[in-house]
Specification:
The complex is a heterodimer. By secondary structure, chain A is an alpha/beta fold. Chain A has helices at about 35-50, 65-75, 95-110, 130-135, 190-195, 215-220, 245-255, and strands at about 1-5, 10, 15-20, 25, 30-35, 55-60, 80-85, 115, 140-150, 155-160, 165-170, 175, 200-205, 225-230, 240. In chain B, the strands form 6 sheets. A 7-stranded parallel sheet of chain B has the order 11-15-10-5-8-9-16, sandwiched between helices. Chain B is globular and about 65 Å long. The chains are: A alpha/beta, B alpha/beta.
Chain lengths: ~260, ~400
């Protein structure tokens, strides 16, 4: 069985701050990390690899420095990595990104199972996974917390409103994973990192994956960013100071005034 | 991506304003990388005007054949999920601005009893796909049906709920018909060029972006429950019902549901439907801080929420998280205790009718959002409030 996991390198958005004066993002010193949803997807793929002996390739689209997340995946146990990098991809929205990734997956050869993180924390769209599934004309199973495969079919535990369901489909298929709240990412051992140095890693351009330039970058992207602006400032409410007892009775007054309490 | 002229003076102003980190300094000159989204934020910043946007490659497409604003009505437990009515209410506004029809798309089994209610939210027309094969949501069946309906009737705009169903369906449809899709919109309006302006938090909610889809139709967007307001417009009116029959997708049977498990949660405790939410952040310090919040919420008949910081620290489970990467809520009363008020949190609760913030730090950004700010320690204040609430019962 051949498994592909798609990875994205993202700025750690928990560490991004906004300049209160200019409303712009302060990015200096913000580290780049492997998108946590993809990290979770990769660990699920490694489990299946351990069980079935599947070959595991990781694929990442991004600038040259994004190779760092591929090296991390190789150190964790992936067999080979491909960085999809080309100026032609710049300005790609989720449509063009999923097209480019699907072209790279086609070039990787026969693929049975694709696992993607549900979304990237710098975009929060959750659209690229289903897009890849369409371009490859395969089934999609989204928002899954568990993935299992025997090489012929894939079984998932998928979140639904108020619960979950177990679903199954024959391979090939694409699964997107969400994380349980208590998920702690696993990091590679020294030995893993050492062996990763010998694993194959390639960089492919748009031409290498036979991508139609009209379907890439800005030209292939239906959406445009019209305007970027800081969240609107709001009218300041009333602020109260005082002793805990005074403030508590103030809250009770407000609750009564707002008809929450009688 | 943008072009930087050779007259760059190396002032670094553009690097600082780029929301995507696509600009950096190399040999004292600004350099752009592929993270550039052409948002244009850097262009007016350059003191020597050396940054230029690429020339517009394609002339504007003729979109006049596409008319009508659609809302996809998600069916849950045999009924219409309320977010559908929120989409219709917003859709009515957009349809009026555009001078187009508002249509509800109902794909389900035996949904006719709900058509009167759908009409009351202003729908002019209901496209109905009815049958036992539509009883349970299935990606292949529903996306095929939506695509066929869109091809046949050519709407200008299609709105979906940002739910497990909507976020599975909409991207598959958008990919197949090659149109734009904007996730989790917090604002929707129509501009002078009749394009849908889709406003959404970007970059983990640190900044807002307007997204446009100028040359593709339909324009598609997802909206979370509780973001738009429901407005009953025409009680007692009847939308025109168009019964559609579409051959089932050839892939209808490829994915099977083996079992379904619904967690038994008390309905009062459901975050997205609660009328009163008592939320806590890092400032609640520990799980016993949250016990106070639970006691207060029980006294007021509400639910307990949490900020991302509190969830990350393990005080509360992830499904209690309010905000950009959690649930969006719109209760009558939202009490934020020990929450500093990161933008990611605020976008998930700002539509609440009344917001009370309790925080020790008078500089906390949450005080810029709330109607009533209480500067003090929630651990000392809340026990007294709980006592009063109990007396009042």
């Amino acid at each position: 069985m051949n498994i592909v996991v798609c990875l994205k390198q993202v700025p750690d958005s928990t560490q991004v701050k906004v300049d209160p004066k200019t409303g712009t993002l302060i990015r200096a010193g913000v580290p780049s990390i492997l998108n946590p949803y993809d990290h979770y997807a990769l660990e699920r793929a490694l489990e299946i690899k351990a069980k079935t002996g599947a070959a595991l390739a990781v694929l990442c689209m991004g600038p040259a420095q994004a190779a760092a997340v591929i090296r991390l995946a190789l150190a964790l146990g992936a067999d080979k990595g491909v960085l999809l990098s080309d100026r032609a991809f710049a300005g790609s929205d989720t449509w063009a990104t999923s097209y480019a990734l699907s072209q790279a997956i086609k070039k990787l050869g026969k693929t049975d199972l694709i696992i993607c993180g549900q979304m990237a924390i710098d975009g929060d769209t959750a659209q690229t996974g289903p897009g890849i599934a369409f371009h490859l004309n395969i089934a999609q199973l989204t928002f899954c917390t568990a993935v299992d495969s025997d090489g012929k079919k894939v079984t998932v535990r998928k979140l639904i409103d108020g619960g979950h369901q177990t679903m199954e489909t024959a391979l090939p298929a694409l699964v997107t994973t969400t994380m349980p709240y208590d998920y702690k990412a696993r990091y590679p051992s020294f030995l893993g990192a050492f062996h990763a140095q010998e694993k194959p890693m390639q960089t492919w351009t748009a031409k290498d994956v036979d991508a139609d330039p009209k379907k890439l970058g800005l030209e292939g992207s239906p959406t445009r960013v019209g305007r970027i602006f800081p969240p609107p400032a709001r009218a300041k409410g009333e602020v109260f100071n005082g002793s805990p007892a005074e403030l508590a009775s103030k809250i009770v007054d407000i609750l009564k005034k707002e008809s929450i309490l009688k | 991506m943008i072009t930087i002229g050779s007259n760059c003076i190396g002032c670094t102003k553009c690097v600082r304003v780029c929301p995507f980190g696509a600009l950096s300094m190399v040999d004292k000159k600004a350099v752009v990388n592929s993270a550039c989204t052409l948002c244009g934020a850097c262009v007016p910043e350059c003191p020597v005007k050396c940054i230029s946007m690429p020339a517009k490659a394609t002339p504007a497409a003729d979109n006049s054949a596409y008319r009508g604003v659609w809302a996809f009505m998600e069916v849950i437990n045999g009924g219409i999920r309320p977010v559908g009515y929120e989409l219709l209410s917003k859709g009515r506004e957009l349809a009026d601005t555009l001078g187009e029809e508002l249509c509800a798309v109902v794909i389900g089994d035996n949904m006719t009893p709900f058509f009167a209610e759908i009409s009351s939210y202003g729908a002019d027309k209901i496209y109905s796909l009815n049958g036992p094969s539509y009883k349970e949501y299935n990606t292949d069946i529903f996306s095929h049906a939506m695509i066929e309906l869109i091809k046949k009737h050519k709407p200008s705009t299609v709105l979906y709920p940002s739910t497990y169903v909507g976020r599975d369906l909409a991207p598959r449809v958008a990919a197949e018909i090659h149109v734009g899709l904007t996730a989790d919109c917090t604002g929707l309006s129509v501009n002078a060029e009749r394009n849908l302006v889709q406003t959404r938090p970007a970059f983990g909610g640190n900044i807002m972006a307007d997204i446009l889809t100028p040359n593709h139709r339909p324009q598609m967007a997802t909206v979370r429950p509780n973001v738009m307001k429901k407005v009953v417009l025409r009680a007692g009116s009847n939308a025109v019902v168009v019964n559609e029959v579409i051959p089932l997708s050839a892939n209808a049977g490829r994915v099977k549901i083996l079992s379904k498990h619904i967690d038994d949660v008390h309905s009062l405790d459901k975050l997205d439907e609660a009328e009163v939410i008592i939320s806590g952040g890092r400032g609640m310090k520990n799980s016993s801080g949250f016990a106070l919040l639970k006691e207060l919420s029980e006294g007021l008949g509400g639910a307990v929420g949490a900020s991302r910081a509190a969830v990350d620290l393990g005080f509360m489970p992830k499904d209690r998280q309010v905000g950009q990467s959690g649930v969006t809520v719109r209760p009558k009363l939202y009490v934020a205790c020990g929450i500093s008020g990161a933008v990611q949190h605020i976008v998930g609760m700002e539509a609440s009718d009344t917001i009370i913030a309790v925080n020790k730090d008078p500089q906390a950004p949450i005080f810029n959002v709330c109607k009533f700010g209480i500067v003090g320690d929630a651990h000392q204040i809340l026990p007294r409030v709980i006592e009063e609430v109990k007396k009042n019962k």
